[in-house]
Specification:
The protein has 134 residues and is an all-alpha fold. The protein is built from five helices and no strands.
């Protein structure tokens, strides 16, 4: 059981979304942020650095948005869906863009393939949580 799920079980109030969906999203956001940070480090070590600039920028943006989003959706006290929804929408959008860019490099760079998978999983999780809080 993930730490996100364990923490949700300790919360004394009711949820605005299914706890399993929320925990899966928190885990996906954390994993994606980590994968993007690691991909940036690996990209910077590639010989064809000029070709990796867009990937690096998108990974940095994606990691930042994932960390901001996970911080907001992890705070369940006085939950404000009007704040969480646009963050989840933005996070899904950057995950899609970053995943698309990583996919372009995935055949040549295994780290980009791994990052693409994390981005795709996070995009799906954000969209699922969005549906759950509507």
């Amino acid at each position: 059981m993930s730490y996100a799920r364990q923490m949700l079980e300790t919360y004394p109030r009711t949820w605005n979304a299914d706890a399993d969906v929320l925990a899966a999203t928190v885990d996906a956001l954390n994993d994606c942020a980590q994968a993007c940070a690691a991909d940036v480090a690996a990209d910077l070590g590639e010989d064809n650095l000029a070709e990796m600039v867009r990937c690096i920028r998108l990974c940095l943006d994606c990691a930042d948005l994932c960390m901001t989003t996970v911080g907001v959706v992890s705070r369940q006290g006085e939950y404000d869906a009007s704040v969480a929804r646009p963050l989840l929408e933005s996070c899904a959008a950057i995950c899609q863009s970053c995943g698309d860019e990583c996919e372009r490099h995935a055949r040549m760079h295994e780290h980009c393939r791994v990052c693409e998978e994390a981005c795709r999983r996070c995009e799906r999780a954000c969209r699922e949580l969005l549906e759950a809080i509507r």
